[in-house]
Amino acid sequence: MKSVRFATLILSFASLCAHALGTHATWQGTFLSGGERHRMLLQADESTEGHWTVQSLAVDFLTNPIHLDVASFQAGHVVLSTNAGKGAFDAHLSQDDATLDGTWTWEKQVVALQLQRVPNEAAWHTPLAYQY
Q1: Element at 6 (helix H, strand E)
Q2: Which residues lie across from 36 on neighbouring strands?
Q3: Which alpha helices (DSSP H) does 22-106 contain, by range?
Q4: For residue 127, is the peptide bond before it cis, meaning its omega torsion is within 30 degrees of 0?
Q5: Cα-based distances in Å from 26 to 7, 69, 100, 121
Q6: Pairing between strand 109-118 and 36-46?
Q7: What dihedral angle (degrees, nearest 10) is formed by the CA atoms of 32, 77, 82, 129?
Q8: What does the DSSP assignment read for 96-124?
């Protein structure tokens, strides 16, 4: 009986710690630009208060690696500026947190983009390498 109580206590503590740490989420998707297919992956952490912080953004097949200049993820609206204004992502989070719907701009070319939330273990590995 003591071992059952101890196991219950350990599981409760683990659950409490996981909740206190917040949630790590990954959204990914593809888009066409200049006749080429590109992949984008956005990773963010949600605090226990519901505030999101963008951790990384990856886009494959670009001439320059992505560097985040400004990242805002508030009230379900994501606004990112990259590479000294060369790139931008502007999207809204769906009610169920499953998709980010918006636009990606690179060198003044704008494309519609939808990123799907995926389990972290199923996300594409970064840095993005040829994985089709």
Answers
A1: helix 2-21
A2: 33
A3: none
A4: yes
A5: 31, 20, 11, 10
A6: unpaired
A7: -50
A8: TSSEEEEEEEETTEEEEEEEEEE-GGGSP
Q: What is the pLDDT along the chain (132 residues), one digit of tens a residue?
A: 544 343 333 333 333 333 345 789 999 999 998 888 999 999 999 888 888 999 999 998 887 889 999 999 999 999 999 999 999 999 999 999 999 999 999 999 999 999 999 998 999 988 776 554
Which of 25, 119, 40 lies closest to 73, judged by CA? 25
pTM for the whole structure: 0.78
Q: Please report, as a single letter, which amino acid is at residue 117.
A: R
Under DSSP, is residue 16 helix (H, G, I), strand (E, B) or coil? helix
Q: Quote the Cα angle for 40-130-110, to 5°.
A: 30
Both tokens of 6, joined, read 């101890």
Identify the H or E element spanning 84.
none
**H-helix segments, 22-109:** none
Amino acid occupying residue 74? Q
